[in-house]
């Protein structure tokens, strides 16, 4: 009963300025290609021997009207405060917007009358994030639940869509929640909704439309998750190969004997951790689920050293990958694609006000097909302050740290944005050390005098402009990670579909 069709999206690959996250990608059907064979060859020119997928067809983001606005001409759109809108493009002081409910009309609205909304599903008891189909079925079929129990999870095949898993007649059925081209949520083409919450509420009241009851959220979210074995005996893990070393410890490839799978283990010295906060903080990090974040699996906090166990990424850190033969063969198109994934993962943390503090190529992990995931998010919060902010033998990553954070310990999402700009520099320079040859003090002196890293030799000008935006001295003037993700997605789509060699 899981729907498999996908909506076709309209063509729109224009790059908006940094405060307006835009429509994402043109669909391949929208581009007429006179010579398909020649086009395929051009795509290979862009991609090289390392294949990257076509840009995801991502729906428009959701906006809401802040105030009532009465149309004064046929070009304008009447909206009421709270109306859900899809913003199509910015036009001077106005935006071209389309209503997501009711008449579905479109027209111009003053730009300062609308605001971007972020989907915040975590507050709902039915939202389980990034669990797989098997885990959903195990939860729903547990004795604490009965027919009508349901949950919502991120789709395993499409990370920007969702799946409703519902128990009925002792079985579990799954329904794909798709996104339309204007950002609406739908299971059936007959009816769509501005938010996921509205869709769930509708099908709770109209069970015949779905074919199963949605009565109560899965009963044992807290109970089962709290009983899961999080603290594991270190004897279950066999360290096999050292993958790297960072500011806060070593990283090893290991084999988890009881689970019969390979994992990655970050080792920490107990003396460097805040023992009173360690378990609480790592438990909180375990609750974060996103396809572009490394998934935490377990920990060993008893004895030396502390183990933090995560999923294993086959290609290792982005820093080491950039220096490998495969990494050196990457074009700017590949790197932009990878940078976009990092921005997507950071946007998820941004929505939850989680500050990374150490965003750099060494803390991005690479898998097959150029998949990138953010690692070590929140780790700085469980490291003793004296280790992190020591003034003499400092471990603070000065070359990646915003001035207000390095000088005054004012870490924020915006200081992470600064670090993302330095990460882009690392990528576009193919792994060059930022401020090479300079001491930490010299770096701080340069930054406070207004100096910024120069553009790497093969860096596209629009990517360097993004770096400069990230390095605005005033944190509030730096773009959001949502905006950075949108910009990089749009640039990559233009490269891919126009087959521009960069």
TrEMBL record:
GO molecular function: ATP binding; non-membrane spanning protein tyrosine kinase activity
Keyword ATP-binding annotated: yes
Matches recorded under SUPFAM superfamilies: Protein kinase-like (PK-like), SH2 domain, SH3-domain
Gene3D superfamilies (UniProt xref): SH2 domain, SH3 Domains, Transferase(Phosphotransferase) domain 1
InterPro entries registered for this protein in UniProt: Kinase-like_dom_sf (IPR011009), Non-receptor_tyrosine_kinases (IPR050198), Prot_kinase_dom (IPR000719), Protein_kinase_ATP_BS (IPR017441), Ser-Thr/Tyr_kinase_cat_dom (IPR001245), SH2 (IPR000980), SH2_dom_sf (IPR036860), SH3-like_dom_sf (IPR036028)
Location of the SH2 domain: 126-218
Enzyme class, broadest EC rank: transferase
GO cellular component, one term: cytoplasm
Domain Protein kinase: 237-488
Similarity comment: Belongs to the protein kinase superfamily. Tyr protein kinase family.
Protein's recorded name: Tyrosine-protein kinase
The species this protein was found in: Pundamilia nyererei
